[in-house]
Design brief:
Helix content is 50%, strand content 14%. It has eight helices and five strands. It has helices at 4-23, 30-36, 39-42, 56-65, 86-95, 104-107, 121-130, 151-171, and strands at 50-51, 70-74, 80-85, 135-139, 145-150.
Amino acid sequence: GETSADEANKLVVKIIKKVCELEGFKNITEEDIIEQTLASDVMDKKPPIIYENMHLADILKIFSENDSLYYPVVDKDKKLHGIITVEGIKQTFLETDISGLILANDLMEAVMTTISCEASIRDVMKALDRYNIEYLPVVNKDNMLQGFIERKKLSKFISTKIIELQKQADSLD
């Protein structure tokens, strides 16, 4: 079946084709993609999450099963409470006497900022730059986690999208 990435790609292509028709041009730029794409189009809709009362062994298991560097920490209702970073865990191990009593709460960092699903990619990029962070949790109005955006995945999405759209524009000739 189609993944949410496929659906998002189709949506973005549709939006950009519409813009191209209205504007009467075929040269799609990075700016056009940034203007037309929403956070919900690029976020990881099912990021690996850590619950605030999880034990270290369970957290490390999640780390071993995923290649993310940043993990949102939520309560049982998926309300966002913090972020655990791989780097932060390393620091904790270096600085503390490790025992079976470490919970996610002990490891997480404060959330610098969040963004809504409806936010433009321009706003996502501004937030990443303003706070000098590599990730951005996407939340609803009640601060419930909806998804997660990592800067490196966003950059890859944009460059891939430009290449795809240029190919499509060329095939319209």
